Amino acid sequence: MGWVLGVDVGASRLRVGLYSIDEARLVAKKMAPTPRSGDRMAVARRIVELAESLFQERGFTGDLEGVGVSSIGPLDLARGEIVGTPNNPLRPFPMRDPLEKRFRTRVRIANDCVAAVWGEKVLGEGGRYTDLAYITISSGIGGGFIVSNRLIEGRRGNAHEVGHLVVEVDSNLRCGCGGRGHWEALASGSALPRLATLHAAGWRGPMTPALELARRGSLDPPLLYKLAREGDKFALSVVRRTNRYHAAGLAGVIAAYDPEVIFMGGSVFLENQDLILPDVVSLLEDYSLYRKPPPLRPATFGHDAPLMGAIGLVLYPPEDTVGKTAPSSDVSRDG
Ligand SMILES: [Zn+2]
Question: What does pTM read for this prediction?
Answer without folding.
Answer: 0.91
